Amino acid sequence: MKYIKVLVINLFIFCGSYAYAEMGFVHTKLADKLYKPWGIAVIDNDHLLITQKSGELFKVNIRSKIKTEILHNLIVSEYGQGGLLDILYYDEKVYVSYAEKRDDEQYSTSVAIGELKENSINFKNIFQSEPPIKSKIHFGSRLEVKNDHLFITVGERQTGKLTQEIDNHFGKIIRLHLDGSVPEDNPYVDVEGGLNEIYMIGLRNPQGMALSSEDNEIYITNHGPKGGDFFGKVIEKGNYGWDDVAWGGTDYDGAIIGDGSSWLPGLVKPIYRWIPSIAVSDIFFYEGDEFKEWQGDVLLSSLKVQKLLKLDYEDGKVKNVTTLFERKGRLRDVEVNSLGEVFYIIDDSKGSLWQLQKTN
Amino acid sequence: MFYLILILKLIIFLFLPVYLDRIVQSNKSFSKLYINTIFLLVIIYIAFLTYVPFTIYYFENEVNIQTFLPLYGLIGIIIFYSILPICFFIIQIRKIHIKSIFNKIFKIFGLIGLILTALIIAGIEIYNFRNLQALHEICYSSHSSSSEKLSCCLDANYIWKEGFAFSKNVPNECEKYMNWND
To answer: Which of A53, A86, A211, B2 could share a disulfide with A39, CB 3.0–4.6 Å?
Structure first.
């Protein structure tokens, strides 16, 4: 029976169908031929924006499945793990994070803002991480808004110990006003030598961020090294401790990090950890009618294990972790529109955008 | 014990070409082509052990090993592992009609390649062993409240002061110690 089911599914795919059913879900392909898609933003209940790492930006009509390229003025090209990365649509403005070439081979995680007008956007920079360096990895780059403040995750760019210093943006959570100006109540504004934009320190590569409407707090996911991926809360002036601790992980060559502690006094504790790593990507606190039983649960996409997970998060603890589905591809981003419809992207040179629905 | 096994491994590796050559000399039923094919496979296997796992890690994780190893380094490795078997192929076929000076150069290159490879293997193994020793010290200092727990820790693939974890398939008797997320 199992083989017949697999055969039928494969036949569907082979015949060019854009949907298949598995484990109580229907996966509907909304767009394909995407080159390494990285971020999804919900414009309204009918339209999404998608970024490609190579710099292109698309608007997708999820009802008609028509994909339209949005022209823009940013000069972005793929650079290691960098390129055009996350995208956020808020209050009719479009925010994007990207790896910006500043000088000769010196790149930073930068954020730009623009307005979508007739399928084009004229972006202007509102944030550049400092200093730009020659490193192709760990750009971080997720964007989220809370109380009209823009939060940005910046990766450590292989700088290790510098994430503990406040004179740079490596491994930090950044908090800005929506126009890019610095809030006066940011925790390091009055600290000598500290960069005013910094809100939290000590991260490695935070590639997921979401706002919970239940407690109005921002949560992140962070890539550990070999082991030590985690889900945790953003705390003002908090420190997650990289690379004095590795949250249970070791270096890729097996070498001990710090003294082997996964946590030290004074540091913020992750809420949930994965050892071995699953390569945590984006998160979303589910709200909506499509999957009523998921209210308040966290949807978490994974690159390495290629799964969409659901975290039952209550009273500050993850009570249960459920695998919703497993796909052949790295799940880079997951977003939900106001109807509760779930969308995800598979990050690949032949990437795609999908909608997850219940089987009838 | 580790160092004894390592020395034995290196001796076997260094004398493998000589040993293979002796087999050919003493037993005509083995063709030189057959012996050299085996040796070529051994070299490819070593190349696989030293480089390919890193690239696999790139695809599975968020690590871009190519950024740690620059392009010229990668090209160097490919050339090194391509030249090495060719040199030995020429050494093995003694009746090849080339001028003796080239024969000597090939032999010298071959020997240098063999010694360098042995040094690389020794370096990697010693480095890995020392890394593991540091983690096992954590087992003895933090997870030795019972012999069962200590045994689980020493078998674990991930070790830290507050816990340990396995890559796959947690042994039944170790499951009770795997509550570090509670």
So the answer is: A86
For strands A351-358 and A25-34, give the pairing. Answer: antiparallel
Largest CA distance in chain A: 68
Name the DSSP class of A269: P
Q: Which run of H or of E encompasses A322?
A: strand A317-326
Q: State the best of B61, B127, B167, B169 to mutate against chain A, taking most chain A CBs within 10 Å.
A: B61
**For residues B26 and B43, what is the distance between their CA atoms, to the nearest angstrom?**
24
| Distances from the Cα of A268 to the Cα of A199, A215, A252, A265, angstroms | 13, 18, 24, 8
pLDDT per position as a tens digit, A320-347 = 999 999 987 899 999 999 999 999 999 9
For testing contact with chain B, the best of A275, A306, A318, A349 (most B CBs within 10 A): A275
- B2-26 vs B100-142: helix axis angle to the nearest 10? 150
Chain centroid to CA B16: 16
Distance separating alpha carbons of residues A102 and A93, to the nearest angstrom: 24
Given an 8 Å threshold on Cβ–Cβ distance, is A250 in contact with B158?
yes
Chain B nearest C-alpha distance from A153 (Å): 16
Q: Can you tell me the distance from the alpha carbon of A209 to that of A219, in angstroms, rounded to the nearest whole number? A: 6
Query: Cβ of A253 and B128 within 8 Å?
Result: yes
CB B23 within 8 A of CB B30: yes
Q: Is B133's Cβ below 8 Å from some Cβ in A?
A: no
Q: Look at the alpha carbons of A120, A36, A95, A104 in this order and tell me if their dihedral is positive or negative.
A: negative
Residue of chain A with shortest Cα separation from B135:
A256
Tell if the CB–CB gap between A261 and B131 is shorter than 8 Å: no
pLDDT of residue B182: 80
* Helix, coil or strand: residue A82: strand
Task: Respond yes or no on whether the N-terminal peptide bond of residue A132 is cis (omega within 30° of 0).
Answer: no
- Region A253-264: what's the mean pLDDT? 92
Residue A233 pairs in a beta bridge with A219
CA-CA distances (angstroms) from residue A38 to A117, A153, A265, B33, B155? 22, 15, 36, 51, 38
The shares of helix, strand and coil residues in chain B, as percent rounded to the nearest 5, are 75, 5, 20
Q: Are strands A25-34 and A19-22 parallel, antiparallel or unpaired?
A: antiparallel
pTM listed for this prediction: 0.84
Q: Is the pLDDT of residue B162 over 90?
A: yes
Enumerate the β-bridge partners of residue A19: A28
B174 contacts in A (CB within 8 Å)?
A: none
Interface predicted TM-score (ipTM) of this complex, two decimals: 0.86
Containing H/E element for A61? strand A57-61
CA dist., res. A206 & res. A138, Å (int): 8
Q: What is the pLDDT of residue A24?
A: 84
Question: Are residues A260 and B158, on separate chains, in Cβ contact within 8 Å?
Answer: no
User: Do strands B158-160 and B163-165 pair parallel, antiparallel, or not at all (unpaired)?
Assistant: antiparallel
